[in-house]
Amino acid sequence: MEVGGGGALKRAAAVGLPKLREIFRRQRRDSEPTFADTPDLDFLYEDADKHHLEISELYSYTEENEFKFNQLFFEELLQQYTSSKWCELSSDEKRQHILRLMELTDISDRSQRMKAVRSYLYLVQGVFGEGSSEQEVWKTSRDMVFLLYKCGVFTALVELLYLEIDNSTAASAALRKPAVSLADSTDLRVIICVLYIMVENARVEEADDDDATKQLINMFRYELGQPILGDDLLAVVLFGMVTKFCSGSAPHFPIKKVLLLLWKTILVSLGGMHKLFELKNAYRADEGLGPVTEDTVSVTRTMRAASPPASAADLIEQQQQRRPIVRARKGAPIDEAVTLDPNGDKIAATDQWKAESANGGDQNGGFLSGARSEDSEPGLIKQSSLDDDENGLDEEVAREMDNNAINNSDDEIRLDSPCPGTPPPPAKGLPWTPKVRQRDLDAFLDYTREKFVGFQVQGDRTSLAGLPQPIHEGIKVLTAHLYVSLAEVQVKREEEIAKHPMSKPECNVMDSPTELLYQHTLPSLAQYMIALLKILLAAAPTSKAKTDSINIMADVLPEEMPMTVLQSMKLGIDVNRHKEIIVKAISSILLLLLKHFKINHIYQFEFMSQHLVFANCIPLVLKFFNQNIMAYITAKNTISLIDYPRCVIGDQPELTADTLEATPGDMAQYCWRNLYSCINLLRILNKLTKWKHSRTMMLVVFKSAPILKRALKVKQVMMQLYVLKLLKAQTKYLGRQWRKSNMKTMSAIYQKVRHRLNDDWAFGNDVDARPWDFQAEECALRACVDRFNNRRYSAATTTFDPEFQPVDNNLQSVLGRELDLGEEFKCKWEAWVDREVINSSICWEQLLVD
């Protein structure tokens, strides 16, 4: 064994080490990219990536050898009944064999039971042993998923999952081992893989699906949102697996697969962003509010990303490459201003300027376009300093606005035009319709009445007597852009119920999948959020390995460590890919829950948000972005050559240093899952801090402004939008000097973020710029949330507070009520009758009259 391993190392050193060293050096160079030539990222934000990529991310590269076991067990069980291949069987024969496999899943012999489950996995993997192309494998996989569902396999597999979760033998064996590996979670991984592939196929609707298939998909989606076995939802069971894993009682759980299945279960049962948009308008219509016509994803597709700032190294290099300017003597004409060429010869500055203008200006993308300074002396060309270009994004935004004003020709082809297929942006105007809150309109009315009339009129929003005509026009504009959110209506109703509990009873609660999920997760939601954030912290690239941190590598590390340099490099890529997929799954889970809870009821959203804030979600997200974010987004931790199903179809080429590097995935400008994760985390941070003064102050205290500004280097409009939203929220608290030195960033906010017409976000004199009282604000919010949860989800059968309980004033009912009398009273009841009845004179007529 040692001789073979040593020989492999020597051969690798002789043949592949120089190439591997070059790959490592190139990776180090790629981790520190320059941003001067950063291209626009043609990224399309969706609920998930393409179907085949989502399936391939389920498997780690160390599981490659397990595919053949699925095929062997399936063929072994099939050949016991027929010698034909699976593709040669009729539909009835296929159904009969699936039912025979279901009988095997009910026996007590674990080995035979898992053979049947691996046969299921081989079927949903597309029977790749009989397929000749990827398209054929995916088509067979989809057909087998719906055939298994019709036969009731999904429910049987969920029952097996429950049994494996409660398997104390596997948990105790994993706890005794010093290092948990793939072998400790084999049975769980097989069951979860089958469930995940079935749920993922239910998420996707193909164009060629017939009516029967669509009906089957709808039934499957509905079933995922209902209790399958017992009273627990599948999502709640998976949440329980996450908390067990984080507590250390089940370290062998394949946490990546659990999180992926949890994400897709929530996504399929509750719905994605299109379903959210429909639900929002439906709930607004129920409350008598107008529909929302602007969707963030749709609007951002019509916008262009701003150019990123140049790095300090690029600026120094540009300054070194520029020729020094020789100052003209005082009073001399401008033609005497000269510069030196590399040979020391003098060249007129004006000639050089004309030459540069003829060549299209500055060769560095217009970095010094318009370089002549207004306040400089004649004959000098203004040189940009590091401080000036620290806000390179701002200069690009201003230049972009100038170009839009000057070059407005439809015939001109712009270099920064959107990608083909993108809807053209509007010719003029801002991308968003401005909004005004009702409280802002009321504050404006109170202020103007106090100023011009001398008193305020509470509750009057129509009378404008005594106000000048410009104020009338301003109120008309504000009223035209008035937007009443669903959350404001729900909060107002909760305040009325708390104020009038007798006359404002609880309205009928809709039995929606979101409501059902909230009811089941309410008792342990805090533990679920803490567990997810712990795993997110362990998977973040900025986190350092600690002895007390949880081990999230249990389902990626093999039993035997790699022996060669090539195997080590493959395992390193697999580990990084594993962490990226975990971050993608957790960010998607949190964002989905926040969005659905917010639409269902605002206090459900606030309950989850508070648990995230108290678990330090805000500093965790900022810590995640405190890295070279461009290097993270462009990371190539994928080996497309061994992605499923390429690794099981046809003859497999030998994996070498060349094939490891030259894969089709390397042609992409970015990693889809990493950019998707970054946008999700920014959206989560924005939801947690929006309209929350104390949480916005947390962004200021944690110095998030420079971290967020570095994220603007990514030229993707949706990511830049949410970064600018977070910067806008804290601009008034950053001080005048920060606003003065980042004026062009303020212009980018003005250009891309929605306007609130009377929001003084850029000046710092807003009434919300008050002292930071985090505890008081959060306690007041928590009181409202607890009152809502206790009233709607309390285990007691009563609806009202005990003080407001109705009294039974029916004489017959009261006298006929059975009472429990204690033993002591029963022993002394005669003495009680003598004292209270016989020896007391009572006027019963007067008592009844009263």
From TrEMBL:
Point out the gene that encodes the protein: LOC106818539
Record InterPro entries: Far11/STRP, Far11/STRP_C, Far11/STRP_N
Which residue intervals define the domain Far11/STRP C-terminal in the entry?
A: 468-829
Q: Which residues form the signal peptide?
A: none
Q: What is this protein called?
A: Striatin-interacting protein 1 homolog isoform X1
Indicate the family of this protein. Answer: Belongs to the STRIP family.
- A Pfam family of the record is N1221
Q: Which domain of life is it from?
A: Eukaryota
Q: Which residues form the Far11/STRP N-terminal domain?
A: 38-338
